[in-house]
Structure to design on (210 residues):
């Protein structure tokens, strides 16, 4: 199998995440996509994250009708800070060497990859599928075919592999931070998230001030 690993805070999951995952699944002919919500991320302030159980449940409801999307709690159940290399090691143990792992990352993440734990080992254990993020955070990659600058740390062979696996997704212009801000201001989020996610947020009074 060719398995896509789609990690993130999903705080909350929104239509942009779902569209990106579906585009990667289709364009790279993957067997399935695993959504992996973070527990405590080493790259983001934990204070802005709501409880893992809420984020996990919203993803579960959002992807429930897609047979090639699955959800993993490997990171939300892990104590302490969660590193990608640890997650990939777990999936290697679960799926074995005969199955291929593809880590799905945005251009913003790949440009910071030199700061990741054991990135050399990570690059040998999985392939990277880089998706564009809108708005594109780097002027040198926006509207061009230039490579994300972060891949310069890899040897030529790995850089060519990353280039060959790049996926372009439609420009949606939706972000979790924007959704959280709208909720704090009492502004509606209809159509920005699946209806089931909107209902879950309302039911549990999430992302509200106070």
């Amino acid at each position: 199998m060719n398995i896509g690993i789609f990690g993130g805070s999903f705080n909350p999951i929104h239509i942009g995440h779902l569209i990106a995952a579906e585009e990667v699944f289709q364009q790279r002919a993957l067997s399935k996509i695993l959504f992996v919500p973070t527990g405590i991320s080493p790259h983001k302030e934990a204070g802005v994250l709501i409880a893992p159980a809420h984020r996990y449940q919203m993803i579960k409801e959002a992807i429930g009708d897609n047979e090639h999307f699955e959800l993993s709690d490997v990171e939300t159940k892990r104590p302490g800070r969660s590193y990608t290399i640890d997650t990939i090691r777990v999936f290697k143990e679960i799926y074995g060497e005969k199955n291929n792992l593809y880590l799905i990352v945005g251009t913003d993440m790949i440009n910071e990859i030199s700061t990741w734990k054991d990135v050399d080992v990570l690059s040998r254990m999985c392939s990277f599928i880089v998706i564009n993020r809108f708005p594109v955070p780097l002027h040198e990659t926006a509207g061009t075919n230039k490579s994300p600058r972060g891949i310069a740390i890899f040897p030529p062979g790995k850089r060519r592999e990353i280039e060959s696996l790049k996926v372009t997704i439609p420009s949606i212009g939706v972000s979790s931070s924007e959704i959280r801000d709208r909720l704090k201001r009492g502004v509606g989020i209809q159509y920005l998230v699946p209806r089931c996610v909107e209902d879950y947020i309302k039911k549990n009074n999430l992302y509200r001030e106070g």
